[in-house]
Amino acid sequence: MQAIEILERLVGFPSVVGTPNGEIVAWIRHYLQSHGAIVTELPGPEGDRSNLFATIGPKETPGYILSGHMDVVPAAEGGWTSDPFRLRAEAGRLYGRGATDMKGFLAAVLAAVPALAETPLRRPVHLAFSYDEEAGCRGVPHMIARLPELCATPLGAIIGEPSGLRAIRAHKGKAAARLTVKGRSGHSSRPDQGLNAIHAITDVLACARAEAERLASGPFEPVFEPPYSSLQVGTLKGGQAVNIIPDTCEAEFEARAISGVDPITLLAPLRAAAEALSRRGFQIEWRELSAYPALSLAADAPLAALLGELTGIEPLAAVSYGTEAGLFQRAGIDAIICGPGDIGRAHKPDEFILAGELLACQAMVEALGRRCA
Fold it and tell me: What's the predicted TM-score (pTM) here?
């Protein structure tokens, strides 16, 4: 099958983050097995979605992982000019949810599988396809934990997030959390008889703003934009009516961390401020939504040199968005980002990838196979 034909099949599966993914997993598994790959389906603890790991070549020898996620963000926003789950080709553009982020990479890799299968590989090429990346990389940790039983320690992992097929050596880490504050409702004319949850949560909001300002003064890592860790309040919900004491308020916080900083620790002052509210009679619920570490691959790493040779482009030092790459690196596997498409097209109506970008990525994967022969 050609890459565009495979992409058409993949886009047709509405594998929205947080929903069952059995159909897309079954199709990819059957396709890979038809070309002789060793395929392992790895169900997650949710029970209705799975990771998929496949090997072409001798699994007992160190090789390379090609990693991507099968889930996509929802497509319920307005602005689509065609069905987001039906690939539409027009003037070299291929439109559909996930076309760039990141089913285009999956399609290019799968299109290269027949060539890889026919190549006498001395080192294996592994495919690691995950679920729920768009919910904060929730699926891939379960797969990474199983790698020791699936293959020899890999030489490196290539995470195919859209990068214009230019390798990227570093990205920030991220942590997100949701705080729910519960007080006591009542008529607004008697504030002495209630507990105003919105008033209470302002203590935590003030802490968040102060922490954000403090982080902006360093430490710095110049390869990033901005060159410091950051923190923000992303959502705020509370109250029913202007004359009712609000008994519940909810806020979501996000922190992004430069290399060497655990993003969860950036949220610790906010959690402490929240827990202090319990001493004033409020009920507090703090829930961690997601967390993944930063990626930092040395400029002289063999994996960076390999991707520079495969793409013909000098690797880029860093980007500020995050990927699953940091989780592979934390597990002791060198990782780098390199995939087709443009991240600026992702998570938007009429998301698209260029047909030429698909073919270029397929050529890169086939070149990796020849390097492993």
Answer: 0.92
